[in-house]
Design a protein that fits this description.
The complex is a heterodimer of chains A (311) and B (226). By secondary structure, chain A is an all-alpha fold. Helices cover 75% and strands 1% of the residues of chain A. In chain A, β1 and β2 form a beta hairpin. The longest helix of chain A is centred in the N-terminal third of the chain and has 33 residues. The two termini of chain A are 25 Å apart. The model of chain A has no long low-confidence stretch (mean pLDDT 89). Chain B is an alpha/beta fold and 226 residues long. Chain B has 2 domains: 153 residues, 3-Layer(aba) Sandwich (Rossmann fold), CATH 3.40.50; 65 residues, no CATH class. In chain B, the strands form 3 sheets. In chain B, strands 4-5-6-3-7-8 form a 6-stranded mixed sheet, with helices on both faces. The model of chain B has no long low-confidence stretch (mean pLDDT 90). The chains are: A mainly alpha (311), B alpha/beta (226). The interface between A and B is medium-sized, with 21 and 29 residues.
């Protein structure tokens, strides 16, 4: 399965360099290196971070409905980006938007771990995440209602739907280190997650430090998902759906899902992004459909199918 | 062998047990008995080093199976049993195979744990403890929701395990099983270890703890409520 996913990501990577608004084929160097390469690599990275985060959170919280959005870090990244829109900083300084998102995600991560407390357990982490999501959503709504002009409002709304259009090498340079660091942290949690499948008490009796495992999971997810949201906006369903799609192939053991979910998330998001690029070519659309909308449109039916199969 | 000395065991602010000085000896199957709320599970968790403030244990030496343990995911029986190797940091198949054999799970090893009966899943949890090859096994209600034959089989296995040189402690509500299989019986009542000794000698104290009449017509045994 890992090999199949690697092959798929390689194929899609090549396709990602050959398909774009300029048509299908090898583009000139500027388009290739300034637009298509960063966009394609970002899709792989952001999707990989989301897929892996979903698998880790589902394992850590022993809940098949857990999704990276649960911790509210994506919401905080969006809030940071909205702040940048709100004050119009991005018109003067292009990297302000991802930087704002990264700052929001970082503050959110600190707030999350502070709220969850020292005696970290699954339920305390979920509660802290829900509180953080609500706070971020409320502040974002406040920023939207008080938006200085209707253009800012439209810009914010469209950005929130998620997308990778027109992302430049600077976005890749800003997002790649935190995503890779987050993935590195998360990939090392396999044994702890396996032990947690029998409950936090049994995991502790097996010598697994439960609180620090959950803290590292939260930190890894915050890095991977927060940095992803900072450059790509709100992309839903990937983290939720990918582990479910892969369980029939790699088994149900949480630790066995990690590498597969990372590769699977990258493949899924890159495929969705290729669809987003291809649709305007095929149907003469004036604008690409937002990536977050596409992943939700693809993810929802998949999830319904999985739910029917599971019953 | 495992020892626990503590002036009091607490759950939050509530004192559950006082003056605990308990050693589980190798070769002994010890039954922890007492009414609901007497502190059996708290004592077992303290022995396992899982109660806040209790001395930590080496997970390679001490295996703990809580009541109602279940796997969150539909892993195979073999995968669940292999989790017992986590303390050793290896994936040795020998101990896993042996644990599957001892618990009679060979035929079920590739079945999903959520697609077998509750009693079979409980045996898998027990096998997980065996896979750690511990010196001390601490089991909370290992016979709950087993049919009588399976309950006897599990108790016989635990007695045999203890006789082979391990320390085994079980929380047990079924006093008849404790009497039949345990080498030693502790009666917990009113925040104290009210009695500690061979099951036959301790049974009157157990009867008093449960508020049940105690009869000696043929063999010492508990009678139904008057």
């Amino acid at each position: 399965m890992i090999r199949a996913l690697l092959a798929a990501s390689l194929l899609l990577l090549i396709a990602g360099l050959l398909i774009g608004a300029a048509g299908i084929g090898v583009p000139d160097a500027a388009i290739l290196w300034q637009l298509r390469a960063p966009r394609t690599l970002l899709a792989l990275l952001v999707g990989g971070g989301l897929g892996l985060s979903g698998a880790v959170l589902q394992g850590a919280l022993r809940n098949p409905l857990a999704d990276p959005g649960l911790l509210g870090i994506g919401g905080c990244a969006a809030l940071g980006a909205v702040g940048v829109f709100y004050w119009g900083i991005s018109t003067h300084f292009a990297p302000a938007l991802p930087l704002g998102g990264l700052a929001g995600a970082g503050i959110g991560c600190i707030a999350l771990l502070a709220m969850a407390g020292r005696a970290l357990s699954g339920p305390s982490l979920i509660l802290a995440g829900v509180a953080l999501s609500a706070l971020a959503a409320a502040l974002m709504a406040l920023a939207l209602t008080a938006a200085p002009n209707p253009f800012a409002l439209a810009e914010i709304t469209f950005w929130l739907m998620g997308g990778l259009a027109d992302r430049a090498p600077i976005h890749l340079a800003l997002a790649a280190p935190p995503i890779l660091l987050g993935c590195f942290l998360l990939l090392r949690l396999g044994r702890g997650l396996d032990a947690l499948s029998l409950g936090e008490e049994v995991a502790a009796s097996l010598g697994v430090p439960v609180a620090s495992t959950l803290r590292r999971a939260a930190l890894g997810v915050a890095l991977a998902v927060g940095a992803g949201a900072a450059v790509a906006g709100g992309i839903g369903f990937v983290g939720l759906v990918v582990p479910h799609m892969l369980r029939p192939f790699v088994g149900q053991r949480p630790g066995a899902l990690l590498w597969a979910s990372m590769l699977g998330g990258g493949v899924l998001l890159l495929a969705a992004d290729l669809l987003a690029r291809g649709l305007p070519l095929a149907f003469a659309l004036t604008q690409e459909p937002p990536l977050g909308v596409l992943t939700a449109l693809l993810g929802a039916p998949l999830l319904i199918r999985i739910a029917r199969g599971a019953s | 062998m495992i020892t626990l000395r503590s002036p009091e065991l607490r759950l939050g602010n509530a004192v559950i047990l006082r003056d605990v000085d308990l050693t589980l000896n190798p070769g002994e199957l010890t039954a922890l008995c007492g009414p609901n709320g007497a502190g059996k599970t708290t004592l077992l968790r303290a022995l396992a080093g899982l109660l806040p403030g209790s001395p930590p244990r080496d997970p390679r030496r001490v295996a703990y199976v809580p009541q109602g343990a279940r796997a969150a995911w539909g892993m195979t029986v073999r995968e669940v049993v292999a989790l017992g190797r986590i303390p050793h940091g290896d994936t040795a198949s020998g101990p896993v195979d042996a644990a599957l054999v001892v618990c009679g799970l060979q035929a079920l090893q590739s079945r999903r744990i959520d697609r077998i009966s509750g009693g079979q899943a409980r045996r898998a949890m027990l096998a997980r403890a065996f896979a750690s090859e511990p010196d001390v096994m601490l089991l909370d209600e290992p016979t709950a929701d087993l049919d009588p034959a399976a309950a006897h089989a599990v108790m016989a296995l635990l007695r045999q395990t203890a006789a082979a040189g391990r320390s085994v402690a079980v929380v047990l509500h079924a006093l008849d099983l404790a009497q039949l299989y345990a080498h030693r019986m502790l009666v917990l009542d009113g925040g104290d270890i009210a009695a500690d000794g061979p099951p036959g000698a301790v049974l009157p104290a157990a009867a008093a703890a449960f508020g049940l009449p105690y009869g000696t017509d043929a063999t010492p045994r508990l009678l139904p409520p008057a």
